[in-house]
Amino acid sequence: MMRLGKSYHVSRFTFFAHYVVVALLIAGGAAAYASGMSYAIYASAFGLAVLIIAVSELRIRSNKIILANDVVIIESGVFSKNSTRINYGNITDIRVQQTFLQRAFRYGDIEMGVPGSFLQQNFSGKGDVKVDAAGLHPGVTLRKFQNIRSIEKSVLSRVSEHHKTRKQFDRAQ
Fold first, then answer.
1. CA–CA separation, 7 and 155 (whole Å)
2. Is 78 helix (H, G, I), strand (E, B) or coil?
3. CB under 8 Å to 163, separation ≥6 — which residues?
4. CA nearest neighbour of 82 among 126, 129, 140, 145
5. Are 88 and 70 in contact (CB under 8 A)?
6. Which letter, b or e, does each residue of 56-78 get, where b requires 16 or more Cβ atoms within 10 Å of its Cβ?
7. Distance CA 23, CA 32 (A)
8. 3-state DSSP call for residue 94?
9. Residue ranges with strand state E in the chain
10. d(CA 52, CA 45)
């Protein structure tokens, strides 16, 4: 039985521009209402701000990575779901890429090499999850995910545990 572990989502910081627009809409609507303009202007600005927040949150929640005990599960999609499972034993390389700003806000990109894989799934969204042959080996690239160093540490420790268990099993045979 597979137990699900911690899940990670796309970083909210990647939607910073959306939050700035929301703040401007609310401030502009409040200013219009305070200056005696129609209440409808304030209500429509507030409604649009709520819609932008809802769409941003939906896009954040639509891409996630789950670190289960025996596999990495990558899910994407709002109405239709795409799912990829990668056994820790198949992961050979891990690379993390972060700019200075990404390091400051604890998000970034991670590539997990899975040689011999012919996965051809492409996940869309602001935090792209791409399964292809770019980078190290064929494998998975997770872009703009939160707590990327925590993901790296967890995956590396589970890959190491898997290899130790495999060596012990091979010796026992």
1. 12
2. coil
3. 89
4. 129
5. yes
6. beebbebbbbbbbeebbbbbbee
7. 14
8. strand
9. 6-9, 63-67, 71-76, 82-87, 93-97, 107-113, 129-132, 139-146
10. 11
Amino acid present at 2: M
Would you call 113 exposed, middle or buried from its count of C-beta atoms within 10 A (0-12, 13-18, 19+)? middle
Could you give the 3-state DSSP secondary structure of residue 91?
A: coil
Q: How far is Cα 96 from Cα 136, in angstroms, rounded to an integer?
A: 11
- Report the pLDDT value the prediction gives residue 25, as an integer from 0 to 100: 93
Residue range 63-116, pLDDT digits in tens:
889 999 889 988 888 888 888 888 898 888 888 999 999 999 889 988 888 876
Separation between Cα atoms, residue 66 and residue 151, nearest integer Å: 9
Take residue 51 and report the two structure tokens written for it. Answer: 């819609």
Q: Amino acid identity, residue 141?
A: T
